[in-house]
Write a structure and sequence with these properties.
The structure holds 2 protein chains of 2 kinds.
Chain A lengths: L2 E3 H15 L3 E4 L11 H9 L4 E2 L5 H12 L4 E8 L7 H8 L2 H4 L8 E7 L14 H5 L5 E3 L4 H13 L4 E6 L6 E3 L13 E4 L4 E5 L2 H15 L4 E5 L2 E3 L3 H11 L2 E4 L8 H13 L8 E3 L10 H7 L2 H13 L1
Helix pairs in contact in A: 1-2, 1-7, 3-4, 8-12, 9-10
Chain B lengths: L2 H26 L14 H8 L7 E3 L5 H7 L3 H8 L33 H15 L5 E6 L6 H12 L4 E7 L24 H5 L3 E6 L3 H18 L3 E6 L34 H7 L1 H11 L5 H24 L18
Parallel strand pairs in B: 1-2, 2-3, 3-5, 4-5
Helix pairs in contact in B: 1-2, 1-3, 1-10, 1-11, 2-3, 2-8, 4-11
Classes of the chains: A alpha/beta, B alpha/beta.
Chain lengths: ~325, ~350
């Protein structure tokens, strides 16, 4: 199978959807950071020029324009860029896009995709390193897709564009250039279906985004000592595949959740809450959260690495719950 | 204006007035809670604007939306039921006074956040441009929206991207008792006016007396035709004399239930709000215009009013009889296509 980058896989998904549906539009800043040499970027530029819009720096207005258009069935993909920037448009995403279907009693839909790049990027400092997924998870009416690899990124982006709901599509700064095997041609990956990225009998590590990559690295170190970790990649937070989480915990009896949000009310907190409510008796040991520390992200990259979850902390947490 | 068009606009204006009086009465009876906003004093603008819009057009309104919906032709029954957040309301009792909507009439979503409606309407223009539907987006909003940055962003974007959208800013600050004089806050704008901002961005911009039906109708008809043809945004600042009851945090019916006979019999006109009855109330003003121009007689006006009053009385009964939405429905429609 061919190998392409995460960003190229996304460009391919957008390109395919624009070809399939004349009502898909793209607000073109820099398409998920994909360079001009990419065949799909070139195709979007040449074939769909009348459906790409160059954005001024106006996150709030663009998110609302895309939402208003979505209510009329025009599906816009808006790569906002660094996730921190979506805070400028929080009102429009949460109160307009996220509320339209509910407030209309089911008569209106707002199919729009807000793509953001979250996380510790290496020197992003305080204002360019946010992970908004747990905050968004508190906003009803928004689907949240969060891939960890190029193949998932493509299939999830296609689903996001076709979904009748607003989707926040969350990528990680450090995933964009990573490569992986991606099937040729169109395929969709449904939301709400987690993927077991590694099978194991001893401990379940639930993760999403870059933390899946970090968990896989931790799992190799654990395996050297005979601890076999099972990695559950959530792939979407809304909807959440509770069944896959519980099934894995049933198998291993031990749980670690790796997450780049600060710990309080985080993705990790929520996953552990689900297991506590629905699978407490499956646990042989108290579960552990591995989060970004509850501090702002310093620009100094040594400090940045220190506050992040990272493979070493995930490994240590897994050893602790297996201890 | 042809008689039928004039009378059609007038019918909607008086229907809005009687609707808003019913809303006020419901609130006085504590049938719904929370603060709310009435369209009294601005009926001329909403009714005239809607007269030039068709089925392909989309309108986004604000917290002061009731008049826009009625002007567009929404059923007063469902609208009043929504005021009470009942099951038969326009939004099934989920939106209330702030969020009346009419998706089937091209009013899909009403934002009560200051400035919220402005980019959404530009989005409707965006959709019309992509789908080549021939429709336009229309945003109805107040002057206070110019305190919000997203409005500036939207004006800039609408010109950059050539979006067919008409921004109708209903500036209802003129005549307001300002906070500094012990009144309620209106907008906080250094000039009290907004038109300079869209002009600075090169957007075709007009000002109009928002209480003059014929002026608004003539201007908007022309603008709507041009917006459709060129695909370019247009801005209108409609200056409305502020209704004296639009004061403090809740409306107060200081001018009383509208007595339409004041349009032809000024014997009872006087007191603190004399200027309102004689010159400012757009409903009385247009009634006088219709009579003076020979488009209607006093009896015609009285008959139109009687019909509107009857329609609203029926709507009140309907709303009061509508059940509260059951708690078993509260989790429906969070996400489309998912349980």
């Amino acid at each position: 199978m061919r190998t392409i980058s995460h960003a190229e896989a996304l460009a391919e998904a957008v390109c395919e959807c624009m070809a399939e549906d004349p009502k898909v539009t793209l607000v073109w800043g820099s398409l998920m950071g994909v360079g001009g040499g990419n065949e799909h970027v070139n195709r979007i530029k040449s074939e769909f020029a009348d459906r790409i819009f160059h954005p001024p720096i106006s996150e709030a207005a663009i998110c609302a324009i895309a939402t208003g258009a979505a209510m009329d069935g025009v599906r816009t993909v808006f790569p906002i860029g660094t996730a921190s920037f979506m805070f400028r448009a929080w009102d429009q995403i949460v109160h307009e896009a996220g509320a339209a279907h509910y407030m209309s009693n089911g008569r209106v839909t707002a199919p729009v995709v807000f793509h953001v790049v979250h996380g510790l990027r290496g020197g992003g400092s305080v204002q360019h390193s946010q992970s908004p997924q747990s905050m968004l998870w508190n906003a009803p009416g928004i689907e949240i897709a969060i891939p960890s690899c190029p193949a998932d990124a493509k299939g999830l982006m296609r689903t996001a564009i076709k979904s009748d709901n607003p989707t926040v599509f969350i990528d990680h700064q450090k995933l964009n250039r990573r490569t992986g095997e991606v099937p040729e041609g169109p395929y969709d990956i449904p939301f709400g279906v987690a993927d077991i990225k590694r099978e194991g009998r001893d401990v379940t590590i639930v993760a999403a985004s870059l933390q899946v990559v970090q968990a896989l690295e931790a799992a190799e170190a654990l395996a050297a000592d005979g601890i076999e970790a099972e990695i559950v990649d959530l792939r979407s937070l809304v909807p959440l595949d509770e069944e896959a989480i519980l099934k894995s915990v049933e198998k291993t009896g031990r749980l670690v959740v790796a997450d780049e949000c600060p710990p309080r009310c985080s993705v990790a907190s929520e996953v552990i809450s689900v297991v506590a409510e629905k699978g407490m008796d499956l646990l042989k040991a108290p579960p552990k959260r591995v989060n970004r520390m509850p501090v702002h992200v310093p620009s100094n990259t040594d400090l940045e690495d220190f506050v992040g979850p990272g493979p070493a902390r995930i490994e240590a947490a897994a050893r602790a719950v297996c201890g | 204006m042809a008689d039928a068009r004039s009378l059609g606009i007038f019918e909607r204006m008086i229907l809005i007035r009687r609707f808003e009086e019913a809303v006020y009465d419901f609130h006085q009876q504590k049938l719904f809670s929370g603060h709310y906003h009435l369209y009294i004093g601005q009926e001329a603008t909403g009714a005239a604007v809607m007269a030039s819009l068709g089925t392909e057009d989309r309108i986004f309104s604000t917290h002061r939306n009731h008049g826009h919906l009625i002007a567009r032709g929404a059923d007063p029954k469902a609208a009043l039921a929504e005021i009470l957040s009942r099951a038969d309301g326009t939004n099934g009792g989920r939106g209330g006074t702030f969020h009346l909507s009419a998706p089937d009439l091209g009013m899909p979503h009403t934002s009560a956040l200051v400035g919220g409606a402005v980019p959404l309407a530009a989005g409707a223009g965006f959709a019309a441009k992509i789908a080549k539907s021939g429709g336009i987006g229309v945003s109805m909003f107040g002057d206070g929206c110019f305190e919000e940055g997203v409005v500036y962003e939207t004006l800039n974007l609408s010109r950059l991207w050539k979006l067919p959208v008409i921004f109708v800013c209903e500036n209802n600050t003129p005549g307001a008792v300002l906070k500094s004089a012990g009144g309620n806050n209106t907008s906080n704008l250094p000039e009290g006016r907004v038109i300079a901002t869209p002009r600075a961005l090169g957007i075709e911009s007009h000002e109009v007396d928002g209480g003059d039906v014929e002026a608004v109708d003539a201007l908007f008809t022309d603008c709507a035709e041009r917006c459709r043809r060129t695909g370019e945004p247009i801005f209108i600042e409609a200056l409305s004399e502020r209704w004296p009851g639009n004061f403090y945090s809740y409306p107060d019916m200081v001018t009383g239930t509208t007595d339409m006979s004041m349009a032809w019999n000024d014997a009872g006109i006087g007191g603190e709000h004399e200027a309102w009855y004689r010159e400012q109330d757009p409903v009385l003003r247009f009634a006088r215009t219709l009579i003076a121009g020979g488009h209607a007689t006093a009896d015609d006006i009285a008959a139109i009013d009687a019909k509107a009053t009857r329609v609203i009385a029926e709507a009140r009964d309907f709303a009061l009889k509508s059940p509260t939405p059951g708690t078993q429905t509260v989790q429906a429609h969070v996400l489309a296509g998912r349980v």
